[in-house]
Amino acid sequence: MTSSTTAAPARDGETRIAVGSLVRAxxxxxxxxxxxxxELLVLRPLGxxxxxxxxVLPALETVEHASFAPPSPADLGDQAAAGLLRSALRIGFRSxxxxxxxxxxxxxxxxxxxxVPLLMALRQETVxxxxxxxxxxxxxxEAGLIAKELLAQGDARGLAVLCSPALAxxxxxxxxSKFGIDAELxxxxxxxxxxxxxxxxxxxxRPDRNYVVSTDFIKSPRHRDDFIKNCPDLVIVDEAHxxxxxxxxxxxxxxxxxxxxxxxxxxxDPARHLVLVTATPHSGKExxxxxxxxxxxxxxxxxxxxxxxxxxxxxxxFVQRRRADIRDDFRDDANFPSDRLSREVSYALHxxxxxxxxxxxxxxxxxxxxxxxxxxxxxxxWSALxxxxxxGSSPAAVGKTLRTRAGVQDADSVTExxxxxxxxxxxxxxxxxxxxADAVPGTLLVPGDTDPDARSLDEExxxxxxxxxxxxxxxxxxxxxxxxxxxxxxxxxxxxxxYNPIVFCRFISTAEYVKDHLDAALNKGxxxxxxxxxxxxxxxxxxxxxxxxxxxxxxxxxxxxxxxxETPPERRVLVATDCLSEGVNxxxxxxxxxxxxxxxxxxxxxxxEGRVDRFGQRRDVVKAVTLYGADNAIDGIVLDVLLRKHxxxxxxxxxxxxxxxxxxxxxxxxxxxxxxxxxxxxxxQEGLFTVETVAGKQAADxxxxxxxxxxxxxxxxxxxxxxxxxxxxxxxxxAEVRASLGTGEEVRxxxxxxxxxxxxxxxxxxxxxxxxxxxTDALPAALRDAxxxxxxxxxxxxxxxxxxxxxxxxxxxxxxxxxxxSSVARFVLDAALDDRMPQWQRPARRCGVVRTTAVAKRTTLxxxxxxxxxxxxxxxxxxxxxxxxDARLLAFRGGAANAEWLPEEEAFALLDARAAQNTExxxxxxxITKILSSLDSLMPTLEQHGEELAARLLESHRxxxxxxxxxxxxxxxxxxxLRVAVQGRxxxxxxxxxxxxxxxxxxxxxxxxx
Length: 1010
Prior knowledge:
39% helix, alpha/beta, disordered N terminus
């Protein structure tokens, strides 16, 4: 591209260069950005990205006004040249003029429902939002969209994400890869390096930086005050339910109170944006739920939600959707399972296993009954319950627990003992994390002051406990461990059906035990791939013994190719504890879940299954299998009191309702009846205990309260804020944005056409008629290098291009925001603007003449780029200036002097016109030359169209900021000064001339058909 310059350079404080204008500096053309000042110009290369932005000092470097050069008549392309250039331009836009500034600069294509929280945020002066969508719907994407938009609009200067240390790296990676937000990790393992990188006395934090912070690390008094003082003005809290506590005792109460104190201090700043994210906002306890809501608005701590005023207030801050609410959004082309098939599979204990279970029950009954005092009884109760739960899990867990000191012995009171026991043995609904919950709870009671009889019991019982441990170890393996035998059969069945399952276990020792036996059983007698010695089935275990980074590496080793480029086996099994049940995305590589151990909390099952039943899952139907012992009384109790009732409520209402507060008391009563009094559960048709027993009455009351809570929840959801924002309303705004950025069909056609034109060899992609594979060996070197950088040097070959919003690692999703698609678009656009490149590397051209049956009169199509300056009012009263771009097709019939301008849809239709005859090159150049000579006379019409576009964009911005009138009784935040103005002259990027095919009787002198 060439430039024409003004007579004098713009330097040394002379006439200020306008935002959006073109300048020439350093041998190339640039666009002036809004951040520019007279003494420092902030420039982006014409056709470049934000990564190429540079600062230029006019006092030191020559900066000249430039104009975009018109096309050259000699730069002729074929019938597809216009469509390729237009698509490359639109796909490459990173500064959309539409109301959602973030959509042009992210590498994920959000579904319409995922924009609802963003719309809600844009209506608030200070964003206070609780996103409580079901597991797997995409809360991370929704929170990321809000962060990207607030940062892009200037409403936020920096970002802090508070999360579990196990999820910190994943959050940082998602922010970078999907939203282009670079963040520093602040963890116990990184704080030393960060402090050394700062000046003495300088805070690690700055309000204008981005951070991903371990909640548990930053809540400590040493770092908390510094963080609060220097915290960015936008905070996202992941798994927010773990950061609130109630007044009741609990093993993790102190930690939750520290987290809550941190969030309360952050929320007390009225200017701080706060986005809370959790799939379980209500653990069944009202007090912590109200504390959570109080972080959004203090009035929500006490306002009645049974009245319209309370629900209206809640609706402004709370968004919660179940899967059924958004299922229609995934009907056509998105990766989201249409169904989850769940089933129970039972097994009968081996006689020797059954005998050991009876012996353990007898031992537990004797030791608890003979306890001296309430505290000692609680020690022995939790010790016995730990042993029973370990025995129900695996022989390996029994051996481990019998050799581990009981943690309850650290307690000084009955209340504290129950809190510790509940946290380590059961799965309480308000347990803050599964991070450290997979260690086997100890059974061994060591002599001490709190248990003076332990020494006398030691000699007598140690031999008995040792005999139990040896008996358990003798049961290891599928011959006598029928639970393991049934698991092997179930896993083989799923593998044969093409599924890759995750097996969830309660304890680390059980997971390792299961992994070893599964590996041996699945790969017995197999020779591996192509005689390489590699196993046919890959089996790995991930537990809490591994650090977060080690877990990621272990999963990658199971699902990705190794350093030698060897791909992993297609069939794989992951054995995991509940350290992977929250926050970790496994849907790309796994599609079924097996509950090897029953969780004593239905929410944990939902979280496990949510690892595969979520957005990005390529399989239409995922599976969940629950194993249980048909003659194991404890499994029967857990199933009937908790899991089956939860499933019935979820099936009937479509809602996953947390178990009520009383569930732990009911479970205690039922288990005490079994252990202390030898009561056996008598099951009725519905699976409930007979109400004649105390435990049966409590279970019935629990289920009645649970059902009532489900009905209340179902009724209240109809009044939440997301129903005030209609899906069609959101879809309209998304459609307008996509119309300027490129539709999915356009992206698919462009990518395949451009790559094959650049000598890539395309082939079919199995199971995807609109996807394809590509051999990249003959592509231009620059594109090959880009593929290697973006997909990894050892990415699968040929490269798979999926017609889906997401793609597995090392492969490509055919969306405009996929990094590989973006790189192809940029290459095509750069090549079209540089006529010095080899001709075969320029599939898009700026001119073309086509004889076609699609027109009856000569028609000219112009590809025009507009730049707009957006004035966006900020929450602090200051306006921010931003630059945006748009590309439009304009067409007219006849000559420039008497142009008959066509409607937009007719201009689009010309892209599909096909050549019916060849056109002589000199003839084509002459026609293009005449059209180019008349561009100045057409400019007033092009400029008028730009003004009309600006008016439409302004209305769209206003519409997005006023969608909550029916909820808030107002049109959103009081903002003045919102403006959209055309900046500079439009650029004519392409000129394409369509001529009718002459008939036998000849043509007129102006090329029109007789």
